[in-house]
Amino acid sequence: MLATVVIIYILYQFNWSGFGEDSNKSVTIKEVINPKDGKFIKLTETTEYFQSGKTFWDWLGLAGTLAIPIVLFQFERREQKRADNQAEAEKQRVEKQAEAEKQKAEKEAELEKAIADNNLREEALEAYINRMSELLLEKNLNVSDPSRGDTAFDVARARTLSVLRRLDKDGERKGSVIQFLIDTELISKLNLSDTNLDGAILTNADLSDAKLIRAKLTSAKLTNAILTNAHLDDAIFDDANINSATLDNASLTRASFMHTNLIQAQISHGQLMYANFAGANLADANLIRANLAGANLAGANLDGANLQRAENISIDQIKSANNWEKAKYDEDFRTKLGFPPEDAK
């Protein structure tokens, strides 16, 4: 309050502020007749009007008048910006919703396709089993001798290879096809060379005497499977799980076991000439009397592997593996490796 009084007092000293008094003087000259002598005389009449000059406030009024368009412009600008922000937010919301709906539609389409593909694979498997069952009854394949050149075996082979191609990456149904052949005692009679069994689930499967030359078994699951006397030359087992499987007397020349799990696998008397075990896990595997001529053991894990009486192994070959010093060897080969005799430990 005091500050207001002081400001008014100061402004009162200046006429331009409008607080002080402002005056206007007007001078009027009149001619009148002198009643005494009848002559005209001049009378000067001075009138002074007092009013506030309002000079400062007039400027403020003018400034206010000029400020109105500016204020309106700023207001409109803010409103426009707010409207633009709302429009952008709405646009983003709509785009986000559209993207979500698109992704949902794509997932639903993928699910529907997966269901349709699954149904087709199931139908293919059922059709295969039905047609093979008819062939078995008509031709007595399970008791026939394939060496006699019965064309029914060729038909059975063609149907088997065809359905396995159609099942493609369906490892479970591929396993069902092979299990059907096992159950019908055809597994050792059909020539399944060049069969695609990638990813097939064959856990505990009995594939004894199976003819799977050049078969593709990448990433197949063969835990505890039996492949005794199986013909597996040039077969591909890369990244497969064959732990605790039995491959005794199997023919595995040039077979590939890159990064394969062969823990505790039984491969005694196996024909492993030029087989590729690079990066394979052969921990505790039984390789007694296995023929390893030219086999690649680079990076293979031989921890606990039994290589006693293994044939055609070399020092360089063994030392290219990992944990080779923890494997079991014949006494004479231990000496070549620089180990002390067993009884000297």
Automatic annotation (TrEMBL):
Pfam families: Pentapeptide. InterPro entries: 5peptide_repeat, Pentapeptide-BTB/POZ_domain. Residues 84-105 are annotated as: Disordered. Keywords: Plasmid. Gene3D superfamilies: E3 ubiquitin-protein ligase SopA. Transmembrane segments: none annotated. This is Pentapeptide repeat. It comes from Nostoc flagelliforme CCNUN1.
